[in-house]
């Protein structure tokens, strides 16, 4: 596969802002989300959840519930046939406990009944005999030897003695000689930072409708970021062939990584098979907060040495994450991305993961990076301040660039961090005047992007319109981008291409919509599928003209004779070729299946101004500017949307969002009233600047932009806070009580 | 022969070396050679790894060519949000 | 069984239904009348995704009982467009790409339409405070505010 | 795990116990009928006006009433009438309806702004002051402003109607002084007289949608020279019920609200606070910020009273 896919060209459709194909349904309320499906004979499923932080399930008596009029099925964790292994078994246990209820809200039994009321009444008839066990809900409590143990036998390989068996994993990245580096530094700053667990906050609670028969075949409709992943996980848990389960992705009401796994889907299948009737399950908002997949909380030490003129000589980070009652891998991307924005000769990032009595974490937009990069960007900012250097100049001096050996290993190809920093420095926002109690903060940010399995089919219909079939749920307008790329490649108008997201029975496996991969990978496959269709259409034209295939080229939607002995023939449009396709060999379909590789990383730089009320600790965001490298913005509106949405999630994370557990290990704020995501009146306009440094690994230069936006705000707001109240705070969220206390303690 | 860099926490299985040399010309041959010479890496490789070849990240792509002068970095499996 | 019979008007159409005494108007709209445009995001009046108008007042339909709809005028997202013609707010939201996942969009459109009926020339701040009860997690609100202001301008003939 | 397979086959169907005591809904057309329904109910009956607290508590399983008495069909519940120079506001008047009433907004801007801070625009389309008062939350937004305004609640019950100052309605979190069969039919805001002004401020971490972490309502009257002749200062979410802080009012009376007077008023408020630490705020935070809000509210009330700003 050619290493350099990218060919520079002028685009006709790419870069414009057409209307998205699913828009009418969404503004009229017709679009069908997870909870908007109904089937004849449909039952309602509900889950009984443990009220304890940690408890062994000694016995469950479901007899009264099973006998209640209208109840058609009652199941517990032991009703799963037992096919699931390893990580999938952990996910299954997270969906429905088998022997131990590991967190407040952990599901222990489920009921399907002819109405929600009867299902609720049945739950109250289930008698569970719990044996309360000691619990831990924070890293500090889970870490030391002798701490209450969340699960047996989960200690990671080669974990240092000082840590308890709750420590399930360790990783380390970096290169160079740290001691030598620190020795050369004129100033060394070492700080510890804490961030709270936060939730993706998608407005649509998880929902599904399962329809399974005793023959072991099933259909499922659900809101998900990856219906192929849902199929494969559920098939393993249910002990059935993947092909026996067809999953259709509904429209999805937000995911941000939280809907890349399963919570209620396997339980709905279990209930449906037992009842031999369709079962619909919809999580309440309280259930979403208590028992879906919030992100990891963190406790991070960062030590950075810098010379008087701002060169970083050495950088070291120890990153500790807690991600719930089962092991998770988020310390890997967390440790890899910590120093990814910097060109360092001596760098080390270590990660440690700890179990706690909390729900199993799921990815949340650039999982692991916001927490670690927040700590690094805060220390870099403090170093610049102490040495009297401009924060952007310090970052420019140490910025990663083409040829830099990254902190996580590979050498960077073409990347956009320096152009972004220069654009930020030149932006009017960076030099605008500030008033009293106001502060400006800056932060850079990074995220990888991924390829992964991708399948696309592109049918040239008889009337010359095109049906593009792909397998990745469209959350932020990706169907528009796919239609644009297909239309650009085929040389036909955007409106002529209809993109639909097909179910798992219509295409080969597609990797989940995550990792900012869809516009990159599905776009790549769409372009290749279009080129396959073009090749076939040129072949049909050549046969029609009786000339050699090689003597036909495709230009602006037409097959044209080309080359010395091609002869003089009227060019044939796509529509003309399509109309005759039955006569020239049959329907024309281009398709492409690939493990997409070569995704390019995406950097971002954010500037923000805040004002703090010194008498109450209230923080108002006055101005916010996002600069990000998109490689090539296919549909600029939706690139801007990712930048704005990511920034506002980061602002919420920095100022007000946190999981609050009581001493009893129970979640205290499982609702949108006390889990405070930003509202419209909290925010100014979020200004965006898109830079386009092409990614060599994509024909149009596309880089994934979906996740980087959430990384910089944590440090940008924290750095702004330190200038507004001249106190360095090192814990998120910087809620008003904490800010007022910091101001008063400063004296 | 190809120089392969392993990340920090795996260096315990390569007698502390950050970089090891193996005889290989594709992604899969690199993995097979690593497991042969450094059995301690087998666990991690079976769990799944990515590999950065000259700056581009590949995930389990067995037949991707690896040139003798390529920069080859073993990396953990990628996830996303 | 002890259901309550309710006669009401929804989007101008006379409608009758049976509901439980403690059943919310949102559950009636969605599960009994298959008007699934109003979405349940929280069932506690904190997210606004279930916004409808009752007798001209913007409310969360999850905090209204089905029984309270007796004799009322209900209008939902399904009634905002006039046949083929989208309401200016619906058009401007598409034009400005003021949505991503779209699950909050119906609630925001009903709320914005209610605002512009009362205040044809709202400032950005007035729009932001009016829509503070409609949570959106994807867009950061920026393009939504722009779309509502643009729709207001068009409706004023400005 | 005790799960004998045979249980699913046994289909003896017990009568659905929860079926009989399913909740009933009544929408009486007279106050007498409403109070009779409430008085005769042996289980737990609740009044439904806006329902924006009640329905949330029902869905969360915090309350399981067996009778809801909807008062919105009772004549007068939606009326706003002027009376003795003040205003009588029906118990079913919603926040958005009151906000549209120029008369009340002109006389009592502090009460209206407090009422309009409850919840979102959507909640404003339903919530009522009587409901906010009877929910008896220490953090109820309209209550401190009503108390500062010396508002009076009119109560209908089995023995006819009676009036009761608003500050005497809440007894403790979630509990009111209303007797069996009693419910509020209207709130009376007295005549404010010339050169009076009121204001209400609350602290929330966002700009909308939160429950008050702490709050302060001030109502005062100035004489011709701008000296404060009468004042009431009340605080929310800093004690089990709303506080009327005499000492804070006395710190303002007789002064023209100079800095010293405002500092004394703030200090008195801080002294009166008896808050808790919970997920929304700490004892120190609530005490400090309540004092700040009282000072700021007093200055706004002063401006509204037409005195020197």
Give the strand content of chain C: 15-25%
* Number of distinct helices of chain A: 20
| CATH topology assignment of the largest domain in chain C | Ubiquitin-like (UB roll)
Sheet with most strands of chain A: 7 strands, mixed
What is the H/E string of chain C? Answer: EEHEEEHHHH
Low-confidence stretches of chain C: none
Oligomeric state? heterotetramer
Query: Can you tell me the number of structural domains of chain C?
Result: 2
CATH superfamily caption of the domain at 23-31 and 451-595 in chain A: Aldehyde oxidase/xanthine dehydrogenase, molybdopterin binding domain
| SS strand fraction of chain A | 15-25%
List the strand order in the largest sheet of chain A: 3-5-1-12-9-10-11
Shape of chain C: globular
Distance between the ends of chain C: 56 Å
- Strand order in space, largest sheet of chain C: 2-1-5-3-4
Helix content of chain A: 25-40%
Mean pLDDT of chain A, to the nearest integer, reads 96
The CATH homologous superfamily of the largest domain in chain C? Beta-grasp domain
Distance between the termini of chain A: 64 Å
The helix content of chain C is 25-40%
What does this structure look like?
The complex is a heterotetramer of chains A (747), B (81), C (158) and D (309). Chain A is built from 20 helices and 26 strands. In chain A, the strands form 6 sheets. A 7-stranded mixed β-sheet of chain A has the order 3-5-1-12-9-10-11, sandwiched between helices. A 5-stranded mixed β-sheet of chain A has the order 7-15-14-13-8. A 4-stranded mixed β-sheet of chain A has the order 16-24-25-26, sandwiched between helices. Chain B has 2 helices and 5 strands, in the order ββααβββ. Chain B has one domain (2-76): Ubiquitin-like (UB roll). With 81 residues, chain B is of the alpha+beta class. The radius of gyration of chain B is 12 Å and the shape is globular. Chain C has helices at 25-32, 88-95, 105-118, 124-130, 142-156; strands spanning 4-10, 13-19, 51-54, 57-60, 73-75. In chain C, helix 2 (88-95) crosses helix 5 (142-156). Chain C folds into 2 domains: 4-79, Roll (Ubiquitin-like (UB roll)), CATH 3.10.20.30; 88-156, [2Fe-2S]-binding domain (DNA polymerase, domain 1). Chain C has 5 helices and 5 strands; from the N terminus they run E-E-H-E-E-E-H-H-H-H. Chain C has a 5-stranded mixed β-sheet, sandwiched between helices. The mean pLDDT of chain C is 97. Chain C has 158 residues and is α+β, with helices and mostly antiparallel strands. Chain D has 3 domains: 24-70, 2-Layer Sandwich (Uridine Diphospho-n-acetylenolpyruvylglucosamine Reductase, domain 2); 80-189, 2-Layer Sandwich (Uridine Diphospho-n-acetylenolpyruvylglucosamine Reductase, domain 3), CATH 3.30.465; 196-304, 2-Layer Sandwich (Enolase-like, domain 1). Chain D contains 12 helices and 14 strands. Chain D has helices at residues 17-20, 31-40, 54-59, 95-99, 102-107, 109-116, 121-124, 129-134, 142-148, 246-252, 259-272, 283-304, and strands at residues 24-26, 45-48, 67-70, 80-83, 86-90, 152-157, 160-165, 170-172, 175-176, 183-189, 196-203, 214-222, 228-236, 243-244. Chain D has a 5-stranded antiparallel β-sheet. Chain D has a 4-stranded antiparallel β-sheet with strand order 11-12-13-14, with helices on both faces. In chain D, strands 1-3-2 form a 3-stranded parallel β-sheet, covered by helices on one side. In chain D, helix 6 (109-116) runs antiparallel to helix 9 (142-148), helix 10 runs antiparallel to helix 11 (259-272) and helix 11 (259-272) crosses helix 12 (283-304). The longest helix of chain D is centred in the C-terminal third of the chain and has 22 residues, at 283-304. At the A-C interface, helix 1 and helix 18 of A face helix 2, helix 3, helix 4 and helix 5 of C.
